[in-house]
Amino acid sequence: MKIESIASFYDMESPEATEFRRLYSNIKKSNNDQLKSVLVTSSTIEEGKSLISSFLAITMAEAKEGKVLLLDADLRRPMINVLFKLPLEKGLSDILEKKCKVGKTIKDTSISGLKIITAGRISESPTLIFNQENIRKVTEELKFYFDFIIIDAPPVIPVSDPLLIASEVDGVLLVIKAGTTKKEVVKRTTNLLINSNIKILGAVINDFDSVLPFYYSSKYYGYKYYHKKAGGKGE
Ligand SMILES: Nc1ncnc2c1ncn2[C@@H]1O[C@H](COP(=O)(O)OP(=O)(O)OP(=O)(O)O)[C@@H](O)[C@H]1O
Ligand SMILES: [Mg+2]
């Protein structure tokens, strides 16, 4: 079976697309209706970050409010290239290692307002190539080119990179796998974010149980959205 790009699974009229539009509008509201950059993360691995950041990016591009970039910042378990059927190289790691200019890494998608930067060549030590100054330079340049940036990041508990990148964006969307991720683990994650002065824009409860694997069904997405009222950092 030929597996298509995830963009071909997006049906604007579906209830799932409506939920994503609601999610987009809610996280925008959490940031006083100004949203330029959001990082998608979770406590641990395989909670649905890559899938949710991809659909959020498609939703934002379809809203036609500006140029959207989806950036794969998970240099350990890159997935955006797989989901959109794009080459892994040249991407973020090549920019951070100064092997490639930002402009050379921006890839087109089948959606006109959506561009992608994939993770790039897998580095043996991603932690070493992520430093605050490097990541600030890259995000500043990207904010100049794009109206909205969505970043697919690694999970917060096992890896330190997401906290570093999160300080360069408006806030974080936290993905929580329903029925699996324990309350105390989520609490630890929110504490780590709050202690680093990172704003939590909202959380998505990704419900795996009620759905089939997304590649095999158009009804792939079952999740509930939960969103905290807009407030100060980490409220
Ligand atoms: N709601 C869902 N229903 C069924 N399968 C799902 C759902 N959400 C995610 N998946 C599947 O779970 C797996 C992990 O999803 P995804 O890659 O989006 O998670 P992740 O948090 O980015 O993982 P990683 O920590 O490896 O980066 C994938 O195979 C994906 O297709
Ligand atoms: Mg992922």
From the structure above, extract its key features.
alpha/beta; Rossmann fold; eight-stranded mixed beta sheet; 8 strands; 32% helix; disordered C terminus; binds adenosine-5'-triphosphate; binds magnesium ion
At a glance:
This protein is an alpha/beta fold.
CATH class: Alpha Beta
Oligomeric state: single chain
Which spans have pLDDT < 50 for at least 5 consecutive residues? 211-235
> What would the average pLDDT be, to the nearest integer?
87
Helix content: 25-40%
Q: Given the helix and strand composition, which structural class is it? A: alpha/beta
The second-level CATH architecture is: 3-Layer(aba) Sandwich
Q: How many domains in all?
A: 1
CATH superfamily: P-loop containing nucleotide triphosphate hydrolases
Largest sheet, in brief, is: 8 strands, mixed
DSSP E strands, number: 8
Radius of gyration: 16 Å
Please report the number of helical segments: 8
- Percent strand equals 15-25%
**Main sheet: strand order:** 3-4-2-5-1-6-7-8
Q: What are the secondary-structure elements, in order, as H or E?
A: HEHEHHEEHHEHEHEE
